[in-house]
Each structure stands twice: as structure tokens, then as C-alpha cells.
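Hello,

Our lab assistant flagged a job as stuck in the queue for most of the afternoon. It eventually completed. Since we weren't sure the result was trustworthy after the delay, we are filing this so someone can double-check. Below is the sequence as submitted and the structure that was eventually returned. Let us know if re-running is recommended.
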Amino acid sequence: MSKQPRKQRKLIYKAPLHIRHKLMSVKLSEELREQYKRRSLPVKKGDTIKVMRGDFKDHEGKIEKVDLKNYRVMIEGMSVQKPDGNKVYHSVHPSNIMILELDLEDDERNEIIERKG
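-- returned structure --
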């Protein structure tokens, strides 16, 4: 693995979907960390999160959409009005959010949580 910034950037830009999914990992709240013995999990539509940095700091809401192509997350209630009157989601990078509540309806996700490190 190279330490050169250009190669690190290239890895992120050219990453396949299964690696992009892992790069979308978000840290868990203190309660979830103790409960699941994990520090972070890949984010998923339906999770309840809290924004830690940026214009919408301390905003809590459910995830509406996960954009793997641009490494962004869209959250309900976080929209900005454009000059023409349309409302668009204000996207957030996963490094700036924290998961408060997990969506555990998916069996594959339950397997990921139960799997040992």
C-alpha cells in the first residue's frame, strides 16, 4: 500500500462498489459501541443519525439516500432552497455524522453486526 497522496486519492476515486461501501463507514454512538462491541458500521438507508460538523450541526434525522458514487449521505429534513425555488438535499460526508439508531430489518446487516472483527 502506497503512502503517496496521489495514489491514495486514485484508490478512492477508482474504488469498486464493495470497497466504496466500506469507505462509507460511520462511527457509532457510545451506547451502540458498548452494545455491539464495534466502533463503526457502513451507513444504510433508514439509520437514524446525528450531524457532528457543518451547517446542520446537531441535526438528527433518518437517512433518505446513500450516494456511493460521490461518497455522500442525504438526510431527511436537511434541504436547501435553490434560487429558483426548488428544494434539494444538502448532502453530508459520512465522516461528519454519527449513527444513533440502527435499521436492523436487513438479515445481512445483522450478520455483519454479529460477525467477529
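-- support follow-up --
The delay was a queue issue, not a problem with the job. The result is valid. The first strand starts at residue 25 and ends at 28. The CA atoms of residues 17 and 59 lie 28 Å apart.
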